[in-house]
Write a structure and sequence with these properties.
With about 450 residues, this protein is an alpha+beta fold. It contains eight helices and 23 strands. The strands form four sheets. Strands 7, 8, 9, 11, 12, 13, 15 and 16 form an eight-stranded antiparallel β-sheet that branches. The radius of gyration is 24 Å and the shape is globular.
């Protein structure tokens, strides 16, 4: 029987492990759900009752072995059709690392779901059927990963058992995909030959591919570097809440609470509050009820400044030397998520970090064709799953970083002001790291009220 001390030690050990957020993507029937199921099953991350339920459902279908894809396809429509429709999030852990997995759909009409699942991912696993090689949907998913600046991409060449575990088949697919991903600016591609159905190179090394000496999928997930020095990034602190207790114990306390989106802040740092442009000095930093000298992303802290400034929710605190230039004109690459099209002239709400302002869609210069990265000029609108460039005019100036510099402060959402539904996900600045795309100029003011 475990003791309280054992439980505490286990909790401490788990907290000490790093966290990796990753997403899976691939064409229909490439075996994504089977890969995820195999990953969970072979890493002992499936509860006994879950496995029993999967076994019963598989037997009802006439299958002798448990269909591991059922571990992730939770919706009834998914189970009936044998496809993935919604993003399925799974949480599991090994002694070396904790994981948050987003299993995203493969159909082209669910491109927006991949954008959602991969938006916070540090790694993307793109599956390819070894019999079919790189197809249009493979290129589409590679392009989405590049757009979202996912730093690590794994190419999992699946169903190697159906091509007799041939090395030349794997090598040809890996070379084609790596060349395409590199042209998009993807910084790192790791190719792994697998059979999700048989378990080859998923958690345990394959006995059928002695020509492959690289890591298994799980080994790579456990060892890929996901931490970096926060001092490499400029500090960005979006204010979530202003704390004014005005109690006898704290009559003059004024603190600004929030989560540090990037970088490091220290007591004594000279900072500027955006969009007002007023400057002050960090007088104190409070974390978990204690005063500290330094805070780094993604800590949640309360910042106190030496001067009493007019600061409210939505303001952004950054180093005084930061090259932030708040502006009302914003050009960005967006993925449209809503079934209702996005058109020039649409009035929307724009949510950037903790600030929400009114905005107008001034222009949609191009729609991106992900199959060949061509730009369709002046499309007139963006339909669901479309990716394109937009020019926006906001009612208030916003301190937006290029998405290439910060995935947190370079991203935003467009929201329907009538019902609050999310319309569009946006990424400020250039589209791809590897190919520079000319930014469209904002048109002259034509009578809008801001």
């Amino acid at each position: 029987m475990s003791t309280t001390a054992d439980t505490a030690l286990a909790a401490e050990a788990l907290a000490a492990t790093s966290l990796l957020r990753f997403a899976t993507a691939g064409s229909v029937d490439d075996g994504k759900s089977t890969l995820v199921g195999r990953l969970l099953h072979d890493s002992k991350s499936v509860l006994t009752d879950q496995l029993e339920a999967v076994s019963r459902a598989s037997q009802a279908r006439g299958q002798e072995a448990p269909d591991l894809a059922l571990l992730t396809d939770g919706l009834r429509a998914e189970r009936e059709q044998g496809i993935t429709i919604d993003v399925a999030y799974r949480y599991f852990a090994t002694p070396r690392r904790r994981f948050i997995l987003a299993d995203t759909p493969g159909h082209v009409q669910y491109t927006r779901n991949m954008v959602t699942g991969a938006s916070t991912a540090e790694l993307a696993v793109v599956l390819v059927d070894a019999r079919n090689g790189v197809v249009e949907q493979t290129r589409r998913h590679a392009a989405v990963a590049a757009l979202l600046r996912v730093p690590h991409v794994v190419l999992a060449v699946n169903k190697m058992d159906l091509v007799d575990y041939a090395e030349d088949v794997f090598a040809a697919i890996a070379d084609e995909f790596s060349g395409y991903a590199t042209s998009l600016g993807v910084p790192e591609v790791t190719a792994i030959p697998i059979s999700a159905l048989e378990g080859d190179n998923v958690v345990t090394p394959s006995a059928h591919m002695d020509w492959y000496s690289g890591p298994t999928v799980l080994e790579h997930l456990e060892t890929v570097p996901v931490t970096h020095d926060p001092t490499d990034d400029p500090a960005r602190f979006p204010v979530q809440y202003v704390i004014r207790p005005q109690t006898p114990d704290h009559p003059d306390y004024r603190g600004y609470a929030g989560q540090l989106a990037s970088g490091v802040l220290r007591v004594g740092d000279r900072v500027t509050v955006h969009p007002s442009g007023r400057s002050s000095t960090v007088e104190a930093i409070d974390a978990l009820g204690q005063s500290v000298d330094v805070a780094w992303a993604p800590q949640s802290v309360t910042i106190r400044l030496a001067d009493d400034l007019d600061i409210s929710r939505g303001d952004l605190i950054a180093p005084a030397e930061a090259t932030l230039r708040p502006s009302q004109d914003l050009t960005a690459t967006v993925c449209h998520l809503h079934d209702r099209p996005l058109k020039p002239g649409d009035r929307v709400l724009l949510k950037h970090t903790t600030r929400t302002v009114k905005a107008i869609v001034k222009e949609i210069p191009t729609r991106l064709t992900l199959a060949d990265l061509s730009h369709h000029p002046a499309p007139g609108e963006l339909a669901a799953n479309d990716i394109g460039r937009v020019v926006l005019r906001t009612a208030e100036a916003l301190p937006v970083d290029p998405y290439a510099s910060s995935r947190r402060t370079g991203s935003f959402l467009l929201i329907d002001p009538a019902d609050g539904s999310t319309l569009t996900a946006g990424m400020a600045g250039e589209a791809f790291a590897g190919a520079q795309v000319a930014a469209a100029e904002a048109p002259e003011d034509d009578g809008w009220d801001f």
